[in-house]
Design goal:
heterodimer; A: alpha/beta; ten-stranded mixed sheet; globular; B: mainly alpha; Glycosyltransferase; two-stranded antiparallel ribbon; 2 strands; 1% strand
């Protein structure tokens, strides 16, 4: 927090506002000393950086891209030595017939290697939302083989012992969440989603992916307690309650149409990386031709969990405008209203 | 041989958790006690039965772990375990927990919703949810139906509704998932575990064409399914409906060896034990 205090905040009123804001946006990462001074300044200036890399392939040098992206968006590698880092991929309902539904094992291993190289203690954890047999999920997704090859430990977040964490978001009626111990005890969580459309909330990326930190043994399969409390509200609340999270989005082979399970393959060749998941997801929306402020949970997250306005997000790597390609969405009013301004896309 | 090895391991620690060396949880302990009871190891099985009785809340429900009385979905498995112990051991030690457990099962209901064109199943039917205040789903419903059927309450209104829900949630093309058939007009994919549990609960019911298609799905899916939970429950469900899979013994032997080598949870060993028991498993309720 020392570095926080060196940032100029202006008058007394704005200082109070900024301090209050900092409780949510990036507060966990800042308190853990994992952010660069530049990233701290961004928090106070209500901005964030997001790194977009194109021409990415699962057999390419992904680890280098991940390292570059995380450093460019404010992570301080020197602070990661000895820290417990939990990688949270999306394995909602894996099927070897639909590899574009789940985070590719190559991306997971690349992120793991990047953090290991920085001296972190890395594990992978997931609580698949639709299936109880996690061994099956690991085999169908191809992740088990990758975990074995890379000697990476896996934690089954659906069944692990839990700890109660107060709801810091207060958007839903839930007082708090039971999170698996590995989630609560992690110094840093890396949300590793697949870039997909979602037939209820429009888009699923790093924030919605955090549903998989919620244990099925307590919330069910599907995690219906969250649905009844409101999907956008609980997406917001879970992310507000887990502030030490960064994002690496697998946007190489993506899903469009009837996502997050039944959609079609759309190849984009992208990795989207950042230390502020809300800003990362806003950029993902723009890349998909959707307006982030119309995605309810992102709208709620705006300037509370991070900036989502384009002018407040500094693009590192590639500009999203040159890479955006409209994703197909179902022709339903709650989804078509998410379309961005016509003509904004360049391709 | 596999069964002998499984029993030897589980007898040493019949209170088991979901992971290796994790604290005991109700569901894995039920599977262990059911297995030990069916194998005639009553003293070890009773340790599980007693532990579950200690976990039982005043309202009759059994939570997921001793320190966690909610959610209460394991109640059906606990009642099934006590009924089996009582039947096998020939005493009435568990009469009171069984009565209280059944009372909870008979009054617990999932939240209903009006019919909705966005989803294919009938949401007006109230079976059992995973957690209070939420909708009815396939696996908790199958667990409570198994208990009611073992308790000879197959004709109760709650059991008939549970069976109706399991029939309704079968996909047109066969199999079940967690409990949605179609969403926004698209049929979803089936999965082995919910299909197997639903078919175990439906064993002995008149077979509908959709049930036959679910069995066909299961038979095909198991030929390429190496995961222990899926394969073992799937094998049991086929057995409960009079179907057999090939190469079962060889697969069980290799699954046992792999589970031990990886130091996986004894929960998996218990499932392997049930599959090895086949028809004699208490999970087969006709």
């Amino acid at each position: 927090m020392e570095r926080n205090q060196s940032v100029s905040t202006g008058g007394a009123g704005s200082e109070m506002l900024l301090h209050r804001r900092a409780l949510l946006v990036g507060s966990g990462l800042a308190a853990a000393g994992l952010l660069s001074v530049a990233a701290l300044r961004e928090i106070y200036a209500l901005t964030a950086s997001v790194f977009v890399a194109r021409h990415q392939r699962y057999d390419g040098p992904l680890e280098t891209t991940v390292r570059d992206g995380l450093i460019a968006t404010g992570l301080v590698p020197a602070e990661l030595r000895g820290k417990r880092v939990l990688l949270k991929p999306n394995l909602v309902e894996p099927s070897r017939l639909v590899p574009h539904m789940t985070t590719h094992p190559a991306v997971i291993v690349a992120v793991a290697e990047a953090f290991r190289r920085w001296g972190a203690i890395v594990s992978v954890g997931e609580g698949p939302g639709h299936v109880r047999d996690t061994e099956m999920a690991l085999l169908e997704s191809g992740l088990q083989q990758a975990l074995d090859s890379a000697a990476l430990p896996f934690v089954d977040l659906n069944y692990e012992d839990v700890a109660w964490v107060k709801n810091r978001g207060h958007a839903s009626p839930l007082d708090g969440f039971f999170f698996p111990r590995s989630v609560v005890e992690a110094d840093l969580i890396v949300s590793l989603p697949k870039m997909k459309t979602h037939h209820w909330v429009g888009v699923t990326a790093s924030m919605k992916n955090m549903y998989g930190t919620i244990p099925g043994v307590k919330y069910g399969w599907p995690k219906n307690v969250l649905h009844h409390a409101g999907i956008p509200e609980t997406v917001f609340d879970i992310n507000a309650s887990l502030p030490k999270t960064v994002a690496v989005v697998d946007g190489i082979d993506c899903m469009e149409g009837d996502g997050p399970i039944m959609g079609s393959l759309k190849s984009m060749g992208l990795l989207v990386i950042g230390t502020v998941p809300a800003a990362v997801d806003a950029t993902v929306c723009r890349l998909m031709g959707l307006e982030p402020s119309r995605v309810t949970y992102l709208n709620r997250a705006a300037n509370r969990l991070g900036p989502i306005e384009d002018r407040r997000i500094e693009q590192r790597g590639e500009r999203w405008t040159s890479l955006a390609r409209e994703f197909q969405i179902l022709d339903l009013p709650h989804l078509t209203r998410l379309r961005g301004t016509p003509g904004l896309l360049t391709s | 041989m596999v069964l002998h090895d499984v029993l030897e391991t589980i007898q040493r620690q019949p209170l088991i958790g979901y992971g290796s060396n994790w604290k005991p949880a109700s569901e894995p302990t039920c599977y262990a006690a059911l297995l030990l009871s069916a194998a005639g190891e009553y003293a070890s099985a009773a340790l599980g039965g007693e532990w579950l009785a200690e976990c039982q809340a005043n309202d009759g429900s059994v939570g997921v772990r001793r320190e966690e009385p909610e959610p209460r979905w394991p109640t059906g498995l606990a009642v099934l375990t006590w009924l089996t112990l009582q039947e096998h051991a020939g005493h009435r030690r568990y009469a009171a927990p069984i009565e209280r457990g059944l009372r909870w099962i008979l009054q617990a209901k999932g939240k209903t919703q009006p019919r909705n064109p966005q989803t294919g199943h009938d949401p007006t039917l109230a079976a059992w949810p995973w957690a209070e205040g939420t909708h009815s789903w396939v696996e908790p419903t199958a667990m409570q139906v198994l208990a009611l059927r073992r308790a000879r309450l197959s004709d109760s209104e709650r059991c008939r509704t549970g069976i109706a829900v399991l029939q309704d949630r079968q996909l047109e093309s066969g199999g079940l998932n967690y409990g949605n058939t179609t969403v926004l007009g698209q049929e979803l994919r089936p999965h082995v575990v919910p299909t197997a549990l639903a078919l175990l609960a439906l064993a002995g019911e008149p077979s509908l064409p959709r049930t036959t298609r679910s069995l066909d799905y299961l038979e095909t899916a198991l030929t390429t399914q190496p995961a222990v939970m899926s394969r073992c429950l799937g094998l049991l469900a086929l057995t409960a409906h009079g179907r057999t899979a090939t190469d079962t013994q060889a697969w069980l032997s290799s699954a046992f060896a792999a589970t031990v080598t990886r130091n996986d949870s004894a929960f998996k060993l218990a499932l392997i034990g049930h599959a090895a028991l086949g028809e004699s498993s208490p999970l087969v309720v006709r």
